[in-house]
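Archive entry: two folds, one per protein. Generate the first.
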Amino acid sequence: MLGLHASLLCADDWSFHVRFQQEVAGGSGRFHRLTREEKWRPEETAIIVCDVWDLHHCLNAVHRLNQFTPRLNEVLKHARGRGAIIIHSPSDCMPAYKDHSARTRALEAPLADNLPTDMGLWCSAIPEEERAVYPIDQSDGGEDDDPAEHARWAVKLSALGRNPGTPWKTQSKQIEIDAERDYISDRGDEVWNILEHRGIKNVILTGVHVNMCVLGRPFGLRQMARNGKNVVLMRDMTDTMYNPKRWPFVSHYTGNDLIIAHIERHVAPTITSDQILGGAPFVFHDDHRPHLVIVCAEDEYKTAETLPPLALKYLGRDFHVSYVWGSETERNLLPGIEVLDEADAMLVSVRRRTLPTEAMAVVKRFVAKGKPVIGIRTASHAFSLRNNRAGAGQDDWPEFDSNVFGGNYTNHYGNKLVASAYRAMLVPHSIVNGMEKRPFRTGGSLYKTSPLEKGTTTLLLGSVDGQPAEPAAWTYLRDNGGRSFYTSLGHVDDFKNEQFIRLLVQGIYWANGIPVNEQVFQKSDSYWATTNVPDGPHSETAWYRCVLRLSGPWASDFSVDVPSSASVWLNGVSLTKDSDAAADALLVDDANLLVIRTESGLTVAPTIRSKSRTKILEGTWQFRIGDREEWSNMPLPAKFGAGSDIVFSD
């Protein structure tokens, strides 16, 4: 009977494919995107619905929220029916629910005997995030409305009797609350009491906004992760407050992807709503970006270092980009290659690898679907060993070059021969638009690639002294209708050449059938970037900012020591002329924005002091050159506007 009972319990389990990211090698900054299967008991699972408010100060945020709340409500209904508990957490809205039975139920949960000390506080960062650069600038609050439309929306909110800055009063009416079973709370300690009282081991976070409230609230991802809950983010039932006019100047949805990747690497794994409801994951209506997978496994030309910054800078507006990296321990493994089954395009930078049979089948299946393939440099011999064939359980693809690119790589000219490239066509083609017609020097040796297959169109020729010219970039229309673009360029020095950058970026766009907007190549160089303090010296006016999260003992006689020539602000309050203002401006157990303006840089790290404590603020700050008064503060409190990479705490 015991065995039968156990099997029945197992049959009722939820099975989740949990996605997480694992660093390829320590300090590499590259991550394998992997999945693992987990089985959860529904009655040991809670879904926390974070800040799904009825209204918001950002109109676009309201539009996006209204798109996914109907599906979120279905997720909650299904989960409730399976026995999971639902905790509704619309912050600042508890007065609207003071007589609601779900609110009463939350208040009546007995005090947990293991209540974490800081469970009632916002969490700005956890230790796992310390080594990461926070991926977006949200210090303007993330508003992405058209200014005129935003102004009209503020007027409408005022007419409704709402504060345009904080217009929420309840949770969205599209989310049903079961008065007999659910809970309502916006307090971390109350939520913890509920979880412990109900024996909850697994927590799913959903709601908005993932880069602010879902991460930082006392009941959010960071607090759940650092206090031992098996927590995941439902990544398709959330949104980000991000303005594409801020660094890294990508689309709103790419900003969302970057935050989710940060979470999967440093905070918690993720799942999608289809794992509860079936069907497909939710996608926002106007998110039409093709999913480009960059497959990178070559050591000679350092494309693992050159491709990610290029993709972020030039592709983040119109593409969803993800990566598959070669294993550091097993040459012929590409962990996560199965992502190609859901991809729209593939960029290959691989050199002489064989793959396990099932992995090679994924690559061949992708190509057979007629999807775009882009190749650079060693992609011509990506899956071909020099003089051998694949071993047992492994597959090669010597014909990859001819089959996929219409190429004919045989070798290369000597490394000491200086190579140059020039346009092969005088007629216009979108891939070479804007490129100079005169030759330019290329990095690395010139590949021998001729003759090309029928169906190719040569765009660029390369030459070395005393030898015939060789095709260096071309398009290929495959028999199955798929578009391919290949260039034998891709040496690390090529990525310093604007001509090569334009060629590769426009080749990627062409392969995907997307017209290139010239704005892709017009990027701002003025933004807050990270730097290590001490820093400098600088010959121009320099601004620095960080976040202080300090406990009670710091409140007594708090002060900031900086060079006498510097100007200092704490939470927007100037300390330059009145250092005594520091103690009044400091928010204990909260995030504090410290900003310093200097004429020469911070060659010595600032020091903060109190009656009983001293701390040198040596480490990661944000930095920019220029001089604008508004840089002394942020539109939102620091806990919302700052990233996790510039936080100094006790």
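Generate the second and append.
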Amino acid sequence: MNRPERSPRARWGRTAVLLIRLRRFWRHKNSRAVTAAIATLVALTLLRAYDPRIVSELKERTFDAYQRLQPRPFTEQPVRIVDIDEASIAEFGQWPWPRTRLAAVTRRLAELGAGVVAFDVIFSEPDRTTPSQLGADLQAADVPDRELTLALLARLPDHDQLFADAIGKSPVVLGFAASSAANDKRPPVRAGLAFVGVKPTSVLTPFRGTVASLPLLQDAAAGIGGINLSSRDRSGIVRRVPMLFADGERVYPGLAVEALRVAQNQKGIIVRGTGASGDEDTGHAALIDMRVGDFKLPLTDNGEAWIYYDHDRPERYVSFRDVLDPAKEAEVRPRIEGAIVLVGTSATGLLDLRATPLGEIVPGVAIHAQLIEQIIAQDFIDRPDWANGLEIVLTLLFGALVTGLVLAFGARFSFYAGGVVFAAAVAASWLAFSQLRLLIDPIYPSLAAFATYVAVERVLHLASDHEKKFVRQAFGQYLAPELLARLENSPQAMKLGGESREITVMFMDVRGFTPISEALPATDLVDFINTLLAPLSDAIQDELGTIDKYIGDSIMAFWNAPLDIDDHATRACRAALKMRAAVAMLNDTDGFGFAARGFPDPVVRIGVGINAGLACVGNMGSQKRFNYSAMGDVVNVAARIESASKNFHTDLLVSHDVVGLVRGVALLEAGEILLKGKSKPTKVYAIAGDETVAASVDFIELTRLHRWLLQSIEARKPPEATDALAACRALAGDGVVGLYDYFEERIATL
């Protein structure tokens, strides 16, 4: 059965509901904070996955710091550098030297027992001092005996051939440099290659040309190896060295690998990549490690090796000059015999100096030497293929953790907790390096967590400011400054939309307002209302009350909402006493100007009713126009108590529920009133004074006499009641003197 298509109205209705839900979700500050955290983490995770230079450099600077803290332990290894140093330049003159000298040092190293000689120098041009080259120069020169000189030069051996002969008689490895500049120069491949898993040529970036030694020399060499440093190290610090090079078809080893192969008399090398037996094929073609004879070394995904540096030590170096000095043989032979010898230069003018993570400047040949040392010692640092994935997961995990902490415990605690997490991440990363030689970056995930913290904290801060603005807009006119500050700092204490709370409610009304309003012009009436309500409002706010509304000449206020006020009933009674005092002061000073106007009765009187109980309080209205108010029976009863106060000839009346909550207020029972909708009468009390009055001897005596008065009326004993009434009037203060007029009327009806 085909389902009927939804009508456009139904689809619009579903869309509207979804938009409303999204709007409600977005209004909550925590929802906005989580959204900001997710957006920040997604952006930072994508940045980490892309791994731009600034990110990779930050990561590698961290690894540099680890190496400086714990460099590779020095162990004596059979690796030496024959150094074309400043002393050798001073001895033999400016570089380049005649190839006959290089041939001599090659033969001398063989005599001293070198296991292999690897030149970190490229001999790409013919020797300019060779006889044939000099003869060509003499052909164009007009010199005496030119023909005789040319004949003598023709009998002399070619320097490059002499060097090639020396190379051919010794285990020598020559270097070449791979280049992006296209040419057809390709050195011969001396090392066989066996691979397991992915084919290296499908992983390695092919070079387009080379700078290599003369074919005459390459043909005589036992090995050919690349001398390039990593193109990834763009900051001038050498951290990695390529172990393999390819032109798209053929694969060449690096100089260090080739020197190890020749030293061990191996025919080839074995390279393992993804897809090999025992290794999961991740779908990303990458190299894993390689084996050269007895030695295995880990590779990066593109065939490079991380160098774990030891400090540059003089023990590695033998001066080129000393090798050719027969007088130094006893000193030089033990250091050369059986060693892998690398020939290179440390002379400043030859421009082969490099920076290392240890902060040292070393000859380029020393980098190859240290690489061979760590292969022999099998002491590597490695960045495993899962490190990137782990760091991305940590980025997300740290960001989510910080977000949860900020939302649950606030910004300050989360900042310190984040510092602990950062310290733990650095400690774990350091342990991974110092104990396992693994390179795991703790900095980027930590910085991402900090960025997430800032984003979440800022969103919450802005939301908090918005809440404070809303609170001040909604309550600034109705709350005391102290209470408003507390509400701004904890807006969560105010649950908009209605909640059930125990509150104390007050109603105040002006007695005889109708004659006053009829006697005054409209503008003067407004001045009268403002003059009266201003001090009465201050009295309420001084006692942390919330002014609900002004209704003409009336005020409705309540306590214990929106924030908790422990002694809310007592504070309401104190506010009522302050209101009584404020009206009395205005009357005494003719603050309303009624006496000056000649009013027959210039005294303004108020009535106050106070009740306590459960009510529903909350923000009522719409988003554009609202009022924080209270609703419930407790409000209605308070209004009726205020209305009934004139019947008791007193100004301040409270309910029996209030009496059970107040402390330190002088109260006198006034009687009972039957309120509309109630089956039982409500007992009410008059406020006689504050805690000072309540503790006075006169009031204690008044309380006893008042009790006698009530008992006499209850027993219907008019004479006794009349005596009690007279005694009470003698002690009653101005605030409750009218109450005894009410009791006099009751006695008259007995």
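Annotation attached to the second fold: The mean pLDDT is 87. The first strand starts at residue 79 and ends at 84.
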